[in-house]
Amino acid sequence: MTQWIPAGAARQKALLTSAANDTKWDELRLAMYGMASPPDFRCMMLSGHYGASDSEWYYHFRIGGYADIEFVDILPRTDADRPEILSHLKAIGLAGHATEQGFRVYGYLRPGQAVDRF
To answer: Which InterPro entries does this one have (predicted)?
Structure first.
């Protein structure tokens, strides 16, 4: 019997490993929204679309749901904001790493991709 393999975006998603669920994304959204100076964010979608920089976490971050977020880049407004953001990421237990610009949090991992949790 032949195994069915989805086509297109569904096939791509089937090959990925989930690294975050809706609960984790909501925890991140609310933690960033609650900061005195919320950082900007940019989402890379599974479609390959890399969204524009945005800082409205409460409504904009969850528009369209979380199911197709490959990763989100969190861009602190100042270096002084980095420790607070990192503290939230550790408390939530998200998969990702620090970048020169801030932090990258993964929703999905590609085959063979290893990422630590904050």
So the answer is: DUF6678
Per-position pLDDT tens, the chain of length 118: 555 555 555 556 678 999 999 999 999 999 999 999 999 999 999 999 999 999 999 999 998 899 999 999 999 999 999 999 999 999 999 999 999 999 999 999 999 998 999 9
Contact 73, 32 (CB under 8 A): no
Q: Are 67 and 12 in contact (CB under 8 A)?
A: no
CB-CB neighbours of 22 under 10 Å? 11
The domain limits of the chain are 19-109
